[in-house]
Amino acid sequence: MSRLLGILIICGGLLIAQMPLSNRVSQAVTVPPGATATIPFTADPLPDGGDLFDVACQYPGAVVSLLLPNGTEISPANAESQGIVYSVLGSSTALPGMFAVSGTHTLITLGAGSLPGAYEVRVNSAGATAEFVVVATYQSSSAVRAGVAAGDQTVQVGRSAVFTGLVIDGTNRLMDATVELALVPEDAGMTIAKLPLIADIFADQGAVGMYGAEWLPDAIGRYTAVLTASGVSPAGVPYLRQATSSVRVIPALAQLTSISDAAVDDTGDGILEHLDVNVGLDVTTAGRYRVAASLVSTSGKTVTSQRSLTLKSGSQVVALPFQPSTLALLGEDGPYSRSNIAVVYEDDTEPPLADRRLKGGDSGGYALAMFAPAGSDAFVLPATRLSFGPVAVNTSKDLALRIANRTPAPITQGRAKPSDSAFSVASPAVPFTVPAGGELELTVRFSPTSTSGRSGALVLGGKTVYLDGVGAAAAPSMRLAPTSLDFGTVPLNQGKDLTFVIRNLGGKVLTVSSVTSNATQFTLPALTAPFTVEPGALRSVTVRFSPTAAGSRSGTTTVKGDDPSTASATVSLSGKS
Length: 577
Known about the structure:
Layout: H1 2-11, H2 15-18, E1 24-31, E2 36-43, E3 52-57, E4 63-67, E5 73-74, E6 85-89, E7 104-109, E8 117-124, E9 132-139, E10 144-150, E11 154-156, E12 161-169, E13 172-173, E14 178-185, E15 193-196, E16 198-199, E17 210-215, E18 221-232, E19 238-250, E20 254-264, E21 274-283, E22 287-296, E23 302-311, E24 314-322, H3 324-327, E25 337-345, E26 353-362, E27 379-380, E28 385-392, E29 397-405, E30 411-413, E31 423-427, E32 432-434, E33 439-446, E34 453-460, E35 463-472, E36 478-481, E37 484-489, E38 496-504, E39 510-517, E40 522-523, E41 531-533, E42 538-545, E43 552-561, E44 568-576
Parallel strand pairs: 11-19, 28-35, 37-44
Antiparallel strand pairs: 1-9, 2-8, 3-7, 3-9, 4-5, 4-8, 6-7, 10-12, 12-13, 12-17, 14-15, 14-18, 16-17, 18-19, 20-21, 21-24, 22-23, 22-25, 25-26, 27-29, 29-33, 30-32, 31-33, 34-35, 36-38, 38-42, 39-41, 39-43, 40-42, 43-44
């Protein structure tokens, strides 16, 4: 429960101001033809009234009434005499909250002096020829509110999702509520998970009146977290509230395994060219990641280094270099605090945080004087990164790097050896000289000998060029990202576009022969096949969801190409109206 404790303490001071709070509760029922459905509610109106019952029916001929605690049944005929407002709206608007349904809305507003207690919504389906859905919502006028927040909007399978709940009366937290959390998947075929929320176990840490739960998801998808809170208010009136939040569960991505640092002397002259923070990773899902880390001085000054690179699955270390000019901004010698180490998965339409550590320990006690002075940064480099993409194993790919000498004297570079042996400077031969005020073009070569991701750094005159590439089989390799598109709710006869990408991770050109959809409401506008994707490149594909009938819809987009190992790949599609 340590992570839950941390979130409760962090949220304690700001929770009321930042968490959306709800004064309502909703219920959904299915009503058969010729039947009368009864939907019970616990209402807690204030003396001035104003409480609202909103009953949305898919069948417009349904007759709605409200049974009061004293046994009086409210209908259009007697509502006004009871001081109650009864109205019907025929517009097909969607209800907010946990359920979304279109239909005829019956609005019943309680008047002054309405009693608290048990109310009952009644729906008569006389005349209906088929069953229909009713969603009834009660909105209270009292100050009792409930809220729930997810610690992270996106979590990975096997990682804890943390939820924090709050029940208040005005600004006073209610500490004796009965609170339950249900995780409702958007996929109706999946199991609903229910969790008790733990109340006030961290009261001595400043989390009084707050409720917490941890959930360990085992299936990917989108979930709605529904908090239900019940109890008796300080005024002695029973209440019932619901609040919702959402969370997306994705496959396991990557996990931080180690954090260290080392000063690097690339030229062997006893002067350190850069300080590397080395981030160890265990990658489950291969793809494009952004890795970042910060160094913080004892006076609170912060500098950051980050890299975006393609990572294969498995254990690996990513070096994040800090140049002397960057370290100088800290203004003092080490040790420094390694902090905010973050890994973001970029092959996603909503790039999620794969892993993060707020604190990564202290660096070595480096002295700024150990590093190359700022004046040694003699070269001007228009490019600070060379990305070779996929290159077939046992072949080579060359990229040009132009360096400029903006000083009044020639500069001789005696060392130009990348930190990873898969990379080399093919020309010119070392040592080479760049004339005063002149430029020189270097040819940097990537020659992979195995199917793996490689990264390195080339230091020239105190400046660093980051290198990355992927050793690939001598064939196209087709990958789709993401592999599912969820359009959510789209109004009837309107359209919504989402995209996925076709990426070629192989060492040869990929020819895509066809891209097709198996469902008429999911289309592929402005797409012509066949087409080709170069090694390391990608092609975006737009899918449009245009529902013509209410309900949930699903389909599949199939991509076929000449990848010898994956001739066909699919993207699952879902949406509703």
